[in-house]
Structure formats: C-alpha cells, structure tokens
Design brief:
Largest sheet: 2 strands, antiparallel
Number of domains: 1
Strand order of the largest sheet: 1-2
Strand content: 5-15%
Oligomer: single chain
Number of helices: 6
Order of helices and strands: HEHHHHEH
Structural class: mainly alpha
Distance between the termini: 12 Å
C-alpha cells in the first residue's frame, strides 16, 4: 500500500507542478505518469537509504538538507525524460515542495 501511495504522490505532484509552476513543462499526461511512477519507485527504495546515509547532514542543517536531497531525486527523474523539463533551480525547489504537499494530501486522504 505504501508503494502505491508513493506512486500516487509522484503522479499528483508532477501533474500539479506542470499545471501551476512556470518553468515546469511535460509533453503530455503519459510522461507525467511515467515520471510519477519512477519517482515513487525511487522514493520507496532509494530515499530511505539516502536518509540513513545523510543523517549527520540532516542533524547539522536541522533538516534543510532533506529538501535538497528530495530536489536532487526530482531532478534525476526529470533528467530521465527528454519530454519533461524543469528550467532552473527555483522551479525545481517549487516542484519538490509541491510533491511534498501532494504527499501530505495523499497520506491524509488514505488515512
């Protein structure tokens, strides 16, 4: 169930970012779905490992480094698709925040 929530979060987050953030462009909904699935897979399998490895950095930066690590994962996903672009650092950070908010919404709705 958690894996499906991660995928739903990724798809919803990329969809909202494409619609509302200037500088985020996806060719069509299929690209958004594929990107969301890849983001869900990375968040489910790779992100816990990254969190453990960067725990001292999280402590030193009071958790701000988590935003940058999440942004790096989002950048990696968008770099995998030629049909999706995020132009610049601020749109990347905004997209990361939108995906985080989408995760909060999905987890709240799922109970």
């Amino acid at each position: 169930m958690s894996f499906l929530l991660q995928v739903a979060t990724g798809v919803l987050g990329f969809f909202l970012a494409d619609r509302f953030i200037e500088g985020v462009m996806a060719q069509d909904i299929t690209v958004i779905i594929y990107a969301g699935v890849i983001l869900g897979v990375l968040n489910f399998f790779i992100k816990p490992i990254l969190q453990i490895l960067t725990l001292p950095l999280h402590v030193l930066t009071l958790g701000v480094s988590a935003l940058l690590i999440n942004a790096a994962v989002v950048w990696l996903v968008q770099a995998s698709f030629a049909e999706m672009t995020i132009d610049g650092f601020l749109p990347l950070i905004y997209t990361t925040l939108v995906i985080w908010i989408a995760g909060v919404i999905v987890r709240t709705l799922s109970g």
